[in-house]
């Protein structure tokens, strides 16, 4: 194996102290510059990632605003439908057309709920990839945290809507022949659909529909507030990129 030797000094000469210092400084400088270059590279990479996350968040929020408007519109239709339902006269249910009117409202409005699901692609990336550490603006972090908290509140409110609708459907089973729907399609004003005249059961149904209306109304109010917040958050994030 070939062995490389450092250049030897002339016989009897010693390396000067200044030369040791110079070598040390050169090595120190090289290491320091490498460290600085690596820090700059990481800093630029982090900034690019931060900008990418914010841009993605703005895009997701834009999708959310569209979805929110759609869900609010559909929920408003359901609220108006429930309002019409509970105003069908309980005292005239012996009349077949009134029964049919109540059944029509029931079949239209108590069998669905308008669920809002946010576009959480960027939020998932922030959580799973440790992306929150890259966002330097504490106000932005607080705004995103507030957004996530609002989403949780909306989910909780929606679950309340689902429970209230389930209760209304349970009570509908006690007063309606729901399986007569195929007959009702051909005779929407002359098909007997009530299976009981029990006032307690009928009042329980109306009351459960009223509670469902309150739950849906509260849910819609929360969606409208979230739409305002989302619109504000988009504008705020755009200022930072």
Automatic annotation (TrEMBL):
Organism superkingdom: Bacteria
Protein name: Uncharacterized protein
Provenance organism: Mucilaginibacter gotjawali
């Amino acid at each position: 194996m070939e062995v490389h030797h450092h250049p030897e000094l002339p016989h009897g000469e010693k390396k000067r102290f200044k030369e040791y210092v110079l070598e040390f400084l050169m090595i120190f400088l090289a290491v320091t510059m490498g460290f600085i270059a690596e820090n700059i590279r990481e800093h630029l990479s982090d900034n690019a990632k931060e900008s990418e996350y914010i841009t993605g968040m703005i895009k997701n929020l834009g999708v959310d605003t569209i979805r929110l408007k759609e869900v609010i519109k559909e929920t408003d239709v359901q609220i108006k439908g429930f309002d019409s339902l509970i105003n069908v006269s309980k005292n005239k249910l012996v009349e077949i057309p009134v029964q049919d009117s109540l059944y029509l409202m029931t079949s239209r409005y108590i069998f669905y709920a308008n669920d809002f699901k946010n576009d959480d692609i960027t939020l998932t990336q922030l959580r799973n990839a440790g992306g929150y550490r890259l966002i330097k603006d504490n106000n932005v972090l607080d705004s995103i945290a507030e957004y996530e908290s609002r989403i949780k509140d909306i989910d909780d409110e929606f679950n309340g809507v689902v429970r209230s609708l389930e209760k209304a459907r349970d009570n509908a089973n006690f007063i309606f022949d729901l399986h007569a729907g195929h007959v009702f399609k051909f005779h929407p004003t002359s098909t007997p659909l009530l299976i009981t005249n029990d006032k307690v059961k009928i009042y329980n149904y109306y009351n459960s529909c009223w509670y469902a209306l309150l739950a849906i109304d509260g849910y819609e109010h929360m969606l409208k507030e979230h739409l305002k917040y989302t619109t504000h958050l988009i504008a705020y994030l755009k200022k930072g990129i």
